[in-house]
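All the exercises in this workshop are built on plain-text protein records. A record pairs a protein's sequence with a compact description of its fold. Backbone structure tokens are a discrete shorthand for how the chain folds in space. Once this layout is familiar, the rest of the handout is easier to follow. As an example, a complete record with its sequence and its structure tokens follows.
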Amino acid sequence: MRELLGRVRAILRRSEGRSDIANQEELDEARRLQERLMPLDIPQVPGLRIAASWRPARIVGGDYFDILRLGDVAICIADVCGKGMPAAMMTCSLQTAVKVYASQAAHPREVCTQVNRLTYESLAAHGFISFFYSLIDCRRKQLTHCNAGHNPPILISGNSTHRLDRGGGVLGVVQQSCSIGITGKTNVHSCPGTGS
């Protein structure tokens, strides 16, 4: 993580005072660094199929997702307000915060509250993050989630689809917000052909 932030800072230092901000080679390097934030392998759970893809609107930006194996599986989706290098740098900080606070024992509401606290301190009212965090209880096949202003993810379960739209405000705007604590629970049915 420090290497990643160091490289992004070096790219920004080299681009200071230039009208084109950064040449194509530097932007390509920044994109490769951001790609390293994304999971290489998506953990799979017997009876469930988890899939994701990432395609930024620009060469670098604030889009982020991660799938963490914590005994159970945690899914994080976020979008940092803004574009380009500043959003990409904030995405690095976001990933670090998520990995610090995410654990099998941490309720999604608590993860959102802690990430909000750090985001509020870091952004100092100069931006926000839409954020979705969920924890899948693999044994019970139950997904508990907290949505902080993010576009609702779609859960396909059995033959039905559900928009996980229950949630509250974005992160980083208000230091403590009771609306961030809104959570939902959904039962996840086994996928055909996955063995459970």
